Amino acid sequence: MSQQEIMDSICQFIKRDQSSEEGFNDLALHLFAYQYKNNLSYQAYCLQKGRTPRTVKMWSQIPSVPINAFKEVTLSSNNPNEAERIFMTSGTTQGIQGKHYHPALQVYDQSMTVNFNKRFMKNSEKIRMGILFPTEEEMPNSSLAHYLALAVKEFGTEDSSYFISERGLEIESLITGLEQAQRTGEPYALLGASYSFVHMLDELEKIGGVFSLPKGSSILDTGGFKNNSRHLELDDFYDRLSARLGVARKDCINMYGMTELSTQFYDQGNAEIPSVKSGPHWIRTRVINPLTGQTVPKGEQGVLVHCDLANFNSVTTILTEDIGVEVESGFLLKGRAQGAEAKGCSLALEEFIRAKKGNSL
Amino acid sequence: MKEVGGYLPPCLEGVLEYKTHIFQRNQDTVEIQIPLLTRDQMDALTEIVKRNSRFILKSFTINEIVNIIDKSIAIFLDRSSKYRQKAEKLLPIITGYDEEIIRLGLTSYLKSFRKPQLQRFLVEDLGNPLLLDDFQPRPKGGFSKAMGPELVAHVWAGNVPALPIWSLISGLLIKAGNIGKVSSGEPLFAGLFAQVLVEIEPKLADCLAIVWWKGGDEERESCLLNKADVVVGYGSNTSLASLGTKIPLTTRFLPFGHKISFGIISRASLDSRKAWQTAHSAALDVVRYDQQGCYSPHCFYVQRGGSVSPREFARYMAHELECFEKRYPRRGLSLEEITANAAWRHKEELNIFSNSSKEVLGTTSNNWTVVYEEAGQEINPSCLNRAVKVIAVDQLEQVIDYIKPYRSLLQTVGIASTPKELFDISDLLGRAGVTRLTGLGSMTSPEAGWHHDGRFNLLDLINMVDIECSAEVYAEKFAPYVD
């Protein structure tokens, strides 16, 4: 199949209301064959694992690629120089950014809008939006900047605005925006990175700012926090959001997405923590033991693997570093499995990298 | 199973709060209850240990102390003793390591603290062990005595069983009071050892303590760190750096950071008869404590030109690791460790395309991984837990270039070579920062009297007190029998 045919069949698939196991499997295997053929790094990796289009019969058998691989190798079925857009991961300790090549944004955009409309807009009218993130022009390689720009373009009214500039959070214009929303009585949506919300809350608390956004208003945060006291922190976070903006916790939606995917997951609000995350019918998630690749028994913790059919050009199946648990209608996020410290006195990889970078030892 | 861990002097008063650590391995669970002292209790404890070290411990001769330690070690070497049995039973549950690995590891480790080894230990550092008992004449004139401090604080880390007693025994030998803080990963053995010491010599009861608190608990930490004369710390450089900031300038701080070790295999050891033995020894060093020790190998540099090539050697090692997996299975890993291992292995697998000479060997269960690299490579830490690289080199000296940038992180080299090669490369390795060379297969069992990270075990803990010649001569003038 050509790239255009692949893209068309995915767009067709996304337009359907739902998918059968069979339908999902068929398209996943098609994509696997396509990516295996056109991406030689991936082919070599699959061969090493002993998995080829001949032996893989189920979407769950497609070799998953760890997210770190986006930093190490070029994962693109199309010539990467012809990509319409490259989304990059934010910097890491090693200073190398993962790259996700999109030959065309058609599939990404459709995946985003169909899903966003259903899960955040709940199929309602356009809404006035405030964005707590830089614009797409400022951050052309940020998938989140593109995501939010798309949200504004497709679902935001014309008086939607951005509240992050190169100077950082524009708290004064944000307050003006919130006051105006309060006055008009029309629903308002505030979307952005979780840490920008924290920053906003800190500022509002400093000046004692409390708002009561009109009925139908909602909040979307994404990105989470890098902290171990996740549970407590999240509870506190949504309490503060709710208290400062007058939006019930059930209307505070958290989006879970990653640069390496083309589809996002949402919850149904955060009245209770941890919230259940789920995705649309063109993405499926397994909770696995990453060493064996086996699915762990339902209810046990494991690492999340996503098979995203909208990832037509890179690889469909991504091994994350997110720990999760499968539940009835989706999965619960339990934090990140990252940087295991050595149990003994042997040097751990992360420490070595620090030593190498700092050269201070 | 329940077990009270740690050790406190009987004369410490007050009600104790206990913190329970729960460990699980397969179907077995053990709860270790360990006292968590209040600030006041910590203060009282440091006073008790200091006072008793001054009046009791320092009244023992070094020979008496050696005998006490020897007797205690004998109890732990005796498989019918209840303490040994307890250690053999509980340590696998606590640390997750295989029973046999622990049994063999304990014996080989504890053997280095028997009387003859301790004597060697003392002579190694001091020349004349009697320096610890009394002023000894010096060849240049005058006299000197080795004085141990009143209180040595040990901050231990990690879960390699029994490792803490190294510094504890060093502290005892110099007649210091000792307070050790165990890690949550292995809070048992140090306390057991203290109990046995006191059983052998009840007078030591108030001279030492084994405690626990959560790492970074500043209140308790500062109590101990402010009152100790010497602090011996183990852990990552980050945690040591933070520990260092809490120690008063005048207190001696001996930090032992995490280290990286590796193997060097000369073509001389790779003929068809000896190569399998070489691979067996190398694999053994990997399997013992699943590479968690600072002396455990992260990779092996293997010389080309033997009748077994480095690539074949990698396969030999894979075979050995698979055999060991049957006999001594790897310990159960946490989800974080599993993820780290999977990520390491995936990364190597992904690079096969750009580096087609690379080979990644392993089973689908991924209980071990051997990666073969054709082109020489800088040393890079493995994700541990039985994952190693075999890196081909033409000449042994090439290794020096690959390790040079990391001099402060290097420790042990396990080596299989001819005697001439050994001495030739040792000098180069030493200059590059390596502090210990050992036979392949012995990497995880340092000899008694070794210089840990190139330092002295006892000398770093003591102060020498000199009576200069002039004082002696001057004093003669005032002797009542002066003519």
TrEMBL record, chain A:
GO terms for molecular function: long-chain fatty acid--protein ligase activity. Pfam families: LuxE (PF04443). Residues 20-351 form the Acyl-protein synthetase LuxE domain. It comes from the Bacteria. One of its GO terms (biological process) is bioluminescence. This is Acyl-protein synthetase, LuxE.
From TrEMBL, chain B:
One of its GO terms (molecular function) is long-chain-fatty-acyl-CoA reductase activity. InterPro entries: CoA_reduct_LuxC (IPR008670). It catalyses: a long-chain fatty aldehyde + NADP(+) + CoA = a long-chain fatty acyl-CoA + NADPH + H(+). Signal peptide: none annotated. CDD domains: ALDH_Acyl-CoA-Red_LuxC (cd07080). GO terms for biological process: bioluminescence. Keywords: NADP, Oxidoreductase. Its EC number is 1.2.1.50. The keyword Ribonucleoprotein does not apply. Belongs to the LuxC family. This is Acyl-CoA reductase. It comes from Desulfosporosinus lacus DSM 15449.
